[in-house]
Amino acid sequence: MNRTTTAIIRAFAIVATAVVAMIAANPAAAVTVPATESITVTRSGGFAGRTETFAVDQTNQDRQAQRALDLAAQPQFRRLAPEYLPENPCCDRFTYHVLAQYSGGAQKTVVTMDDVENTPPVLMQVIDMVVASGTPASVQ
């Protein structure tokens, strides 16, 4: 190895040692993804024009509820756009308002409707799991 390569390896080792020492001193610093505290899905519209609200949180023991909470904490969910709506919202479709609340107070709100082509699968998975396993909070 030449001197430049040796110097680069030593510098990398020093930086890596410093990072490990900082994490050891403060294990919370290693956690970068906040936990999802709760998810609320409000479903409105459809043929009957009803509004229903479903919610899951950390107290739900249901496997689907826990999976929904885990998915909502992932970067692919947290990077979702605020809405996925069709050009023409006509005709008896459900609209879904999704609110995820995270530890530390952060929130993520996303709106979509049934059968919107560009709706990411992760959003529909979270909606389906919360509706299937969530506690109905209200029906109007």
SSE diagram, text form:
Blueprint: H1 3-25, E1 36-45, E2 50-57, H2 63-73, H3 75-78, E3 83-84, E4 94-102, E5 107-113, H4 121-133, E6 135-139
Task: Describe what this molecule looks like in 3D.
This protein is 36% helix and 29% strand. The chain has helices at 3-25, 63-73, 75-78, 121-133; strands spanning 36-45, 50-57, 83-84, 94-102, 107-113, 135-139. Helix 2 runs antiparallel to helix 4. The model has no long low-confidence stretch (mean pLDDT 83). A hairpin with a 4-residue loop joins strand 4 and strand 5. It has four helices and six strands. Strands 3-5-4-1-2-6 form a six-stranded mixed sheet, covered by helices on one side. The chain has 140 residues and is α+β, with helices and mostly antiparallel strands. It folds into two domains: 1-32; 33-139, no CATH class.
Strand content: 25-35%
Low-confidence stretches: none
Output the radius of gyration.
Answer: 21 Å
Distance between the termini: 73 Å
Residues in helix, %: 25-40%
Query: Biggest sheet, strands in spatial order?
Result: 3-5-4-1-2-6
User: Major β-sheet, in short?
Assistant: 6 strands, mixed
SSE series = HEEHHEEEHE
What would the principal axes of the Cα set say about the shape? Answer: globular
